[in-house]
TrEMBL record:
One of its GO terms (molecular function) is ADP binding. Residues 988-1011 are annotated as: Disordered. Residues 19-183 form the TIR domain. This is TMV resistance protein N-like.
């Protein structure tokens, strides 16, 4: 290599011209004539224009303006970290300038670790620490800035001299190759602190499927505003553009940029030329098809709000060559559905990612200092994993005291979100187009988060009862379904696995701030009131006006409960929604009810003070009434009032209620909840005529019998748990899907089940007097699970019929008491069996029946079990949870329990001669309370088996296993029980019951379970990912069964 040693310059002005450079090298003088000279010459030989830093200036000198200009004019800055780098004030000043340029303009920065390790670049360690000790004496005002810059630079991905085993020439070539790669394409600035980007880009890579798929794909990155969609898209562009013949990133398409300009950008980016220009959109569309139609292209289109934006640009699957990928970022799911795009739902940051991002912004390092740790966690919790909020608040709180952090956080929680966050999130609200989407959003954000979607939709539906038979076209965009769909499409609301409406905390606060803005000074004129202090003020001053459409006040946790005048509601003529909990009034509450707005649709009054609802309680628009914990003795006085619009009635925990309501007054009732009404002697016979009733909840009552329910043709769910005096369940409608009657200890007689063809779930745990259910064996085809643990007197004939008749594959199974496995099973074992699939002459192998006996060696609790099914011949494996295995709390933990379920051969993929090994064991830590005593297996030949879909876990269905080879030889691939299922965390498989917890509060019957923030849940999906990892590489097929 020629001697290109860097020489002194005779004039500092000779390089002051405004030319631009490819590479700027930041280095300390000790490497000037050795490594840096070697690297600089090699870069120049490869055609790179390197900024000519040829000044041998003494240490301690400040950098010149031309050095600063050189940094600004360079596309890439390479920082050569060596042991003496931190000793140079010159180097540290350069570093600050470089990182400032990176933050402001996205300059590419490449750390090079020469003769030191990346961990040595630490102002608190080794040579760097010694250098900073000296700097502290001479330049104390600069030390913190330099330390922050070093920490930030050290966190970037760079090149390490050790990678080439100390060969300098090879290391230089590696650096040149990396710089060539980085400068060959247009690289977009992603973020100054790209926390959490890599795992999301990696996950998105599965959707791109660049290597294996040759079709043209459209893939959407979907998420709410501020979630980081653009940031992730930029990194996707940077990472994958070199896999395509051309690439283009079209930014902010939703803004008012001319279509022609975007088309020109696309053409010039992909073709890498400025010579092609179009002047009209139609011309651009044709040219895109002509010039790019055969090129494998990556196009990323940012912030698309409407399909017509893409149509106008002329971008579709036919615009590009085979193997092309069109990536769209959007808040609007409807756009992606219309385009039939694959959808990647961008996840929010987890707690640790959030803390790191906040820390970089607020402190300039990865973790907060000790005194800020607790309040930092509080800010992270407030931000809810939203990168926008973490960055904005981190910047705002930088250099503030912990007390100031606490004050600011308290203010944001109490009033409005930080203005920059609010304005960004409000964009989605402003884009709503259907006529009732905006008021729906405000209603949900103020009153209905965490509540059942169908329940809320019926309350808020503006269409009259008489309009229900009109089709969607006649109803236009005014019905609630259209509005909720648009809110979901715009990522403003989500629906969780239990059907509840959820909303990010900052989206909620944005909605509430929109309400506040409409009347910032006069509380009584705000359209919705939810804030504790605001509501109290309006009620105490009696200043509520007709603008108020909704009001909520909960005093149940207040030790001092003020009283309000019943006249406080007199002027609220527009009130539609009223929610009161433990609120006391002075005056006649009958007058209060009389003066409530005729527009009222939802009355939720926990602790309702009257003994009876007055007969003149006439509210023609009322849909839902929740009077839980009331003082009612009877429901209403005799009157001819017909409550035709009432769909929901909840009188739970009304302990004084001694008379059942006459249900003939409620012809359109859909959900009835009379839970824990302990003095209620029975249910009125008129309930049998409610032909629109869908759900009945009568849990924890003392009555001995029920009237006939067979006439309730639409009834789907019936809850009778803990009705300890109930002796007989009457005839049931054949439409019923779920019956739960756990701990009905007096229950002796069940109706005939011969025609219960839609029954999916049957719970009769701990009914010791029950001996059989007539006809149940004829209705097993629709069943997903039967729980009869603790039913200790079932006849042997009944047990045999249901076990032999079970045909349901997938989730659930039959759960019974006992340790006896029927004799018809073919293979028996302890916790595992091995066999070969036999040859069949005339029969078809349809599936597999599994049976296991398990017990608890500790205390009653959930004891999740896992199944491992290994096909040694095909070298594949299947893993599955027995999802609802448990040891009921009301049973003796020493009892034995039997589970039976089936696996379809559509999932197994077995053939004659396959060698099989099946293992069943507890999932959880070593002291898990579950113990598998024995298992048995039999084949299903020429018998219909049904793969059920248990809708309590809609996100867990996976019946599409792949046939991949096992890695390694057979012995090495074999795993122990510890490696398969026994060592997994016990909470992985724990399944929330359909009630969601305590019988008193939760479940489908609780129509007022609002929660302010959406909380991520861990379920069986986590089980599969962890189980897959722990079972070794040979488990290539994962699906869910049992």
């Amino acid at each position: 290599m020629p001697n290109c040693q860097l020489m002194k310059m005779t004039s500092s002005s000779s390089s002051s011209k405004s030319s631009h450079y490819d590479v700027f090298l930041s280095f300390e003088d000790e490497t000037r004539k050795t490594f840096t000279d070697h690297l600089s010459c090699t870069l120049e030989l490869h055609g790179f224009n390197v900024f000519p830093d040829k000044n041998e200036l003494p240490r301690g000198k400040t950098i010149t303006e031309e050095q600063k200009q050189g940094i600004k004019d360079s596309r890439l800055a390479a920082i050569i970290f060596s042991s003496g780098y931190a000793e140079s004030r010159w180097c540290l000043q350069e570093l600050v300038e470089i990182l400032a340029r990176r933050t402001a303009k996205g300059q590419i920065v490449l750390p090079i670790f020469y003769s030191i390790e990346p961990t040595d670049v630490n102002p608190e360690k080794g040579d760097f620490e010694k250098a900073f000790r000296k700097h502290q004496k001479r330049f104390p005002e600069m030390v913190e800035t330099w330390k922050k810059a070093l920490n930030e630079a050290a966190a970037l991905v760079g090149l390490d001299f050790r990678q080439t085993d100390g060969h300098e020439g090879l290391f230089v070539r590696t650096i040149v190759d990396e710089i060539t790669k980085k400068l060959e394409h247009t690289y977009l600035f992603v973020a100054p602190n790209p926390v959490g980007i890599d795992p999301r880009v990696h996950e998105f890579g599965k959707y791109l499927d660049v290597e294996r798929s040759d079709d043209v794909r459209i893939i959407g990155i979907l998420g709410m505003g501020g979630l980081g969609k653009t940031t992730v898209a930029k990194e996707i562009f940077n990472k994958y553009q070199d896999r395509f013949e051309g690439a283009s990133f079209l930014a902010s398409v939703s803004e008012d940029e001319k279509l022609v300009d975007l088309q020109n950008t696309l053409l010039s980016d992909v073709l890498r030329t400025k010579n092609i220009k179009v002047s009209r959109a139609g011309e651009g569309t044709a040219k895109i098809k002509l010039k790019l139609g055969k090129l494998r292209t990556l196009v990323i289109i940012d912030d698309v709000d409407k399909v017509k934006q893409l149509d106008a640009l002329g971008i579709n699957r036919n615009s590009f060559g085979r193997g092309s990928r069109i990536v769209i970022t959007t808040r609007n799911e409807h756009v992606l559905r219309t385009l039939k795009a694959d959808i990647y739902h961008l996840p929010a940051m987890n707690e640790e990612e959030s803390l790191e991002l906040l820390s970089w912004r607020a402190f300039g390092k990865k973790y907060p200092t000790e005194k800020y740790h607790e309040v930092s966690r509080e800010v992270v919790d407030y931000c809810g994993g939203l990168p926008l909020a973490l960055q904005v608040l981190g910047n705002f709180l930088r250099e503030q005291t912990p007390r100031r952090w606490e004050d600011a956080l308290r203010k944001w929680k109490r009033s409005r979100p930080y203005v920059e966050i609010y304005e960004r999130l409000k964009v989605s609200y402003d884009r709503l187009t259907s006529s009732n989407a905006k008021p729906l959003f405000l209603d949900i954000s103020c009153f209905f988060i965490g509540m059942n979607k169908d329940y809320v939709m019926k309350i808020l539906d503006p269409c009259d009862e008489d309009d229900e038979d009109r089709d969607d076209e006649d109803r236009g965009d005014q019905d609630t379904t259209t509005g909720i769909r648009e809110l979901h499409n715009q990522c403003l609301v989500t629906v969780d696995s239990e059907g509840n409406l959820m909303m990010h905390g900052l989206i909620r606060d944005t909605g509430r701030e929109i309400v506040h803005e409409k009347s910032p000074e006069i509380k009584g004129k705000r359209c919705r009131l939810w804030d504790h202090k605001d509501v109290m003020h309006v009620l105490q001053t009696e200043t509520g006006r007709e603008e108020i459409q909704g009001l909520a006040l909960d005093l149940s946790k207040e030790s001092h409960k003020p009283s309000f005048s019943t006249k406080a509601f007199n002027e609220m003529h527009g009130l539609r929604l009223l929610k009161l909990k433990d609120v006391q009034f002075t005056g006649n509450c009958e007058d209060l009810l009389k003066h409530l707005s005729k527009e009222l649709r939802w009355l939720c009054w926990h602790g309702f003070p009257l003994n009876v609802i007055p007969k003149d309680f006439d509210h023609p628009n009322m849909v839902a009434v929740d009077l839980s914990y009331s003082k009612l003795i009877r429901v209403w006085e005799d009157s001819d009032l017909l409550l035709v619009k009432w769909k929901f009635l909840n009188l739970s925990h009304s302990h004084n209620l001694t008379q059942s309501p006459n249900f003939s007054k409620l012809p359109n009732l859909e959900q009835l909840i009379l839970q824990d009404c302990k003095c209620l002697p029975g249910i009125d016979q008129s309930i049998g005529k409610l032909d629109k009733l869908v759900s009945i909840d009568l849990r924890r009552n003392s009555f001995c019998s029920l009237p006939s329910l067979s006439g309730i043709s639409k009834l789907e769910t019936l809850y009778l748990n803990n009705c300890t005096n109930l002796q007989k369940i009457p005839d049931l409608p054949t439409n019923l899907e779920i019956l739960e009657a756990d701990e009905c200890i007096a229950l002796e007689k069940m109706p005939d089940f011969s025609e219960m063809s839609r029954m999916r779930v049957l719970h009769l745990n701990h009914s010791p007097k029950l001996t059989e259910i007539s006809g149940l064996d004829k209705s097993l085809a629709s069943m997903t699970r039967i729980h009869m643990e603790g039913c200790t007197n079932l006849t042997a004939d009944f047990r045999k019929k249901i076990l032999q008749g079970w045909t349901s594959c997938g989730y659930g199974g039959i759960f019974l008491n006992g340790n006896y496995i029927p004799e018809w099973f073919r293979y028996f074992g302890g916790d595992e069996v091995c066999f070969v699939v036999p040859q069949s002459v005339s029969s078809n192998f349809e599936g597999l029946t599994l049976c296991c006996v398990y017990s608890s060696n500790k205390r009653p609790e959930d004891c999740p079990l896992g199944i491992s099914v290994r096909n040694k011949t095909k070298r594949t494996a299947l893993l599955a949870p027995i999802t609802y295995a448990s040891v009921p709390t009301f049973c003796d933990y020493k009892d034995h329990y039997l589970w039976q379920g089936q696996l379809s051969n559509n999932v197994l993929g077995w053939q004659e001669g396959d060698e099989i090994k099946i293992f069943v064991g507890p999932v959880g830590p070593g002291d898990n309370s579950a113990k598998v005593e024995k298992i048995a297996v039999d084949f299903v030949w020429d018998k219909f088996v049904k793969e059920n879909m248990d809708d309590s876990h809609p996100d867990l269905y996976d019946f599409n296993p792949h046939q991949d080879c096992l890695a390694g030889d057979d012995d090495e691939a074999r795993t122990s029980h510890d490696a398969s299922v026994e060592n997994l965390p016990s909470n992985i498989l724990r399944s929330d019951s359909i009630d969601g917890g305590d019988d008193d509060e939760a479940g489908p019957s609780n129509i007022d379970t609002a929660g302010e923030n959406q909380t991520p849940k861990t379920g069986c999906c986590l089980f599969f990912s962890k189980l897959f990892l722990m079972c070794g590489e040979f488990f290539k097929t994962v699906c869910n069964v049992g």
